[in-house]
Each structure stands twice: as structure tokens, then as C-alpha cells.
Amino acid sequence: MLPTETFINLDEIQLYEKSVNDFDRGKMDPDRFMALRLQHGIYGQRQEGVHMVRVKVPGGRLNAAQCRAIAHCLTHYSDTDNVSVTTRQDIQLHFIPLKKTSQVMRTLAYAGLTTREACGNTVRNITACPMAGVCPKEHIDMLSLTEETTAQFLRRPLIQHLPRKFKISLSGCEADCALGSMHDVGLVANNDKSFKLLAGGGLGHKPRVAISVLDHLQEHELTPAIEALITLHNKHSDRKRRAKSRLKFLVEHFGPDEFRRQFMLEFERCKQLYTDNITNELQWRKPTDGVVCGSGVPLEITRQHDGLYAIPLALTLGALNSEQLAGVALLLEAKQIREIRTSIDQNILAIGVDKQELSQVLQKLHDLSLQPPNMGDKVIACPGTTTCRLGITASRTLAKKLSGGKDNLHIAVSGCHNGCAQHHIADIGLHGEAKRRYGKLVPSYALHLGGDGKSDMKIGIKGPTIPVIRAEDTIAQLQFAYANNAKNAESFTTWSQRKGSDYFGHLLAKLSEVSEDDLENVCRDHGEDHPFKVLPLGGGECAGAAQDFVASSFSEALNEQAYRNVFIQQKKWDEANECCVQMLKLCGSALLFLCGEKTPETVESLASALQKSLPEEKLGSQLAGLLTTLKEAHLTCNSGVFIDLKSEIDDWTQLAGKLCQNRDEQLDLGIEREASTSHDALTIDLSTFECPLHFVKARNEMRKLEHGDIVTFLFESGEPSHQVTVSLKKEGHDILTSEVRGDLTYITVKKEA
Questions:
Q1: What is the pLDDT of residue 604?
Q2: Which CATH superfamily includes the segment(s) 379-522?
Q3: Tell me, what's the pLDDT at 730?
Q4: What is the rounded average pLDDT for all residues in the chain?
Q5: Residues 6+ apart with CB under 8 A from 616
Q6: Looking at residues 638-657, what average pLDDT do you find?
Q7: Which of 21, 131, 326, 426 meets the CB 3.0–4.6 Å disulfide criterion with 135?
């Protein structure tokens, strides 16, 4: 296990605490603060004033001190007494008042736990098999690699502003218990001391099975390969259409062969940055007799390859209370048990129990209401409407009533289509949605049948949609049909895929059909005594889009800077020159964007555009001069000039960053700010600008006004004018009038912020 301080940065917690205070006093823009708290693992809840704190637990590994710290956070800072183990091996604490979130982060940090990048558009918690390092069947201990990979990418500039989240899993053998095929990146150990590299998998919106990118990746190539895929995502994924910005859509966009070619280009470049093996020497081993763990905890106490034992412990939908956590911490210390692991089926596993201690340990665990799972216990659910702002149905309330039965079927219930319970790869998966029947909203579940996330991944076939109130009867009917119609030893997956969607539509027809007379009975969700409704918990995102583009550009420029420095050391002048040009282009484009202008095709044209937009700052002429000197140094291979030019380019990017921050006071690029000036404005036509440029232009004009000044903007009617109206309101301005005149909408705004 890596030293606990590896993942910790107390200074950033102090800065986060200051931001909370600034936000509380109205000194920080809500969109900017939202991005910051997500970066630190703090999610909003349906309930006002409280938040969810997600703890990053690489590979699910927790020691006694960490269990005790989580218990302390529950008893001292949370308004509830349960944490949740998630399907990514994280720990989530709910109902934390915003003012207490920094105290939670600090308590966790002292125990070696971080919330950094557990949420947001970053590399999320890296998952592994719950038996990693002790499984009899593994070729290699992936747990140490999980921690090293986490440390390698944590807080890296490259991953601070990705187009969307990025998920990685590591499996120690071909069984792929960490489910690499459903991840953005999956690494699976082969029996020849190499790894299979998978990419582009995912669930939620349009589930996809990952493609094989390389079949025999060597261990010294692991980090460059992962970084190459992250870089592809960062450069090419769609930042404008959030629903289309996962890596799986990039595979779809390029096609598998072209995606592999693009990967190899980035891979060769990334390998230059890691000329030495960044991982500790990996310990390979020969598999021994034993049972493959599977994607969750085993059903029974399992012998480890080192002769000790692992005890699986079933949790109800991942719930652990403070007494259980504190009790487990004491037990780990008293019996010298190595650790516990969280698993992707929302359970835990005690690792490293001596055979002679098994009976006593089991009794102590029983006293804490913790015991091994029974047949039928593999029921998984996301929070749904209990806490999640995206939840449509009460997934947890339903899931508590369900069982996988004597066939131990895997059931997963998601409160919306996003798939946090991984319903696409369950035997029986359900995702919540609202269906309109006879003018009424009926809380419903769409069925997914016969999914399997392991090595030969199969996405569940689509079944009918049924009212939530009939979900229990539906599960019972499916279990009965399987028990009576499946062939000998035929799995539920094989049976379902063989039967097909039409069969299940006919089988469940009476349960899926709703007559007008049924409405009174089907318009309520489980646990609710009022008619069903979907709460509108969303908001405008124009400001967030503007800040994301600028911040991501500077993050990518920092990444190019790291590559440039390595290439200079290696005397690879062509590659270093390319990095310098990219740095200048990225930072210049971001600044021009905040000026409300589009990025030209060439970096030379960018210099001219900057000079036109910002004549007083002279950044355009400076950029032109840098490009000329850079070209001369490159053509003459003058290494001395090239090295001297490096600091000038860094100074220019710093200046560009300062100007960006001055134009958008909510941006935080880590650069000291300079004072900005204000001017006057009256009426402006912005109808030719697309989102988010129309808002950027409007915001720039508002900043030129004095408090109380009034301006009228012209925008394209429809969604563009609606988006910018919402965003200007969120900035604190007063919308006096909004008048639609055909294709144009006239919006009059009074400066109040």
C-alpha cells in the first residue's frame, strides 16, 4: 500500500474552504463554484443545503484508520448515519452541510483518503477486482498498479478539464472481474506477462462494448498507453454535446481502425515522456487452484493464494453505519487483519484473516450485523430520488423489496437512464423513467435482460417498460419463466439472449399495459403517498461552457509544456517546436474566445486577431515575434536560442492567463490577477453568435457598464435567447424585458452585479 500522504494535499483543502466562504458571501459565481466543488468530490443533492461527499478509494482498499475516519465524519458532520459503497468502489457520505465539507475532507486526508477528482470531468476512481493481490487465479497483483496509476494522474493538468469523465479498470487475469469491457480504459493481464488494452466501453446513454486496442501491451508501456487514450479524449471528444462526449463516441466517430491509428500516434508521443519504467517492478505469478472471484464478492469465505482467508460481507444496497465502521476498525487492529475492500456490487470483503481466527472474526462481524451473503443478495441500486438530483424513481426503495432468488440472479435498479447501478450488465436491469399515459405521468421502469459485464461482455436486451408498482410482480414472473423454461445449466444471460425482446414483450404484456382505469393505482412511486412528478432540478450552463473551454485550454497547454521540456532534454527539436506552437495556440485561442471572437485556422492568423482585439496589450505582436523566432530556431537547429525562447513562451502564456482571468473574474488558472477597466455600452446585436459565444460577448459588455446601467441585446430567438437569459440572471443581473420580434429577441438588462 502506498504511503497515506501520496494522495493528500492539505493546501488545496484550505483553498477550497476559502472558496466555500466566498461563495457563501456571494463573491463567487455559482457555476464556477460548482466546477470547483465537483473537482473536490462534492456533489449537490435534491435536498437544499446539504451535499454528498464522494471518497476516492483506489481498488476499494481501506485500512483501520480510514474506516475510523469515515465513521468520525458520519457522527460529527453528516445528518444521517449511513455511508454508501458505490459501484466504483467509492464511499459516499450524504447530507453534509456545505460549510462542513472542508472539515470532512480534512478528516479524511489525515487518514490518507482524498475526495479529489472523485466527481467531475476527470479520471474517476480506478477500480480493480476485490480479490486483487490475493486471488488464486490472478497472474499479477493489480492493486499496487491501481494505486500507482491513481497517483500518476491525480491532479495532473491534462485531466482537470476533460470533455467528460474518464473511467479505468484493472483486472489481474482473463476473467476480467473488474469489467474492463464497460470502461473507457480496461487493462487485463495476460498469462505471458503482458496486458490486453481495451478502450471505448461504457454504459448509460448508448451502452458500448470496449474494443481491443492492443493485445500484448508491456508493463513499461502502461502509463503511456493510458495517457495516450486520455489525450485522444481531451483533444477530440465533443465538448459541446455533453451526451456525446465519452470515449465510446470517439470510437464510433473514427471507427475502430482509425481510432487505433490515432491512438498509436499519441502512444508513440507519450512514450517519449516515460522513457523509464514508471511502475515498480511488477510481481507476476502462476495461478493456483481456486474459484474465480467474479465481479463482486464471492458467496463464501475464500482461501487466498497466501494461505489466509477473505470473508465476504453483504451490505444492504451498500449501506454501512458509523458503529459498523468503527467496529470493523477495531476488529482489523485486534486480529491483525490486513484491510477491507469495497466491491463493485456494493459489498465489502475482509482480506487476510488467519484460519485459526475465522470463527471469532465471524462472530464479531455478526455482532456488528455483518455476515456473508446469501443466495439472492446480489441486488444493486443507485440512490435514485432519495438524494440524487437526476433521479426519476425511488430505486433504493424498490431494490430493498427484491431478491435474486434461488438462482442468485443479479438485479440492478437505476433511478434514471444514466446507469449508476449498471443495469445494462445485470441479469435483470431496470432504469427509471416517466411515461405519459392518458395525460398522466406514470413512474416506470424500462427492463434490460440478460446482461453480463465480464470478459465476453453482453449488453442486456431491451424489454418492455412497466409501471414501478408492478416491478415486484415482473421480477417474480421473469424468475418463474427462467426456472421453468431454461435448458439444462443455461445461464439467465444465455436464456434471455436466446429468447429475445419479442418473447419478453409477450410474456410481460399484461404487466406493461396500462388502461385509463389503472391510473389511480400506477401513478405513485414506491414509498410515496402523493401523485408522481418529476422535479425540474436543472439550470442554465452557458457560463460553465465558457469557463470550461478556457480552463481546458490552459490545462492542455500545461501538459504540452511538460512534453516540451522532456523533448528539449532529449534534443528532439521537431517535437519540442510542435509543443511550443501548441502552447501558444491554446492560450491565444482561449484569450480570443473571451474577447468574443472565433479561433482562426492558423496560429499566424491568431496573432493578427489578438492584435486587433487587444491592441493595447500587444499580445498579438508579441505572439507574432515569438513565432518568427521559433521558426528561425527550428530551421537552423539553434538549440541555444531554442532553450532561451522557452522562458519567453512561458512568460507569454502567463500573461495570456492573467488577461483571461481579468476578463472573467470567476476563472482560476492559478495566475496572479491584474486590475481591469470599465467602459460604457448601450445597445448590441449579438444575433449572429452561437452558444456560448453569444453569452461571452454579452458578459464582456456587461462588465463595461457601471452599476445600474441598462443595455439591450439582440439574440436569435428560441433556445439561444433562453440560454443567455438564464445565464445573465445567474450572474446577478436584472432582466427588465424580453421581447420576441420574429427571428430576433430583444432582451433589456440592468447591471446589478
A1: 86
A2: Sulfite Reductase Hemoprotein, domain 1 (3.30.413.10)
A3: 84
A4: 89
A5: none
A6: 82
A7: 131
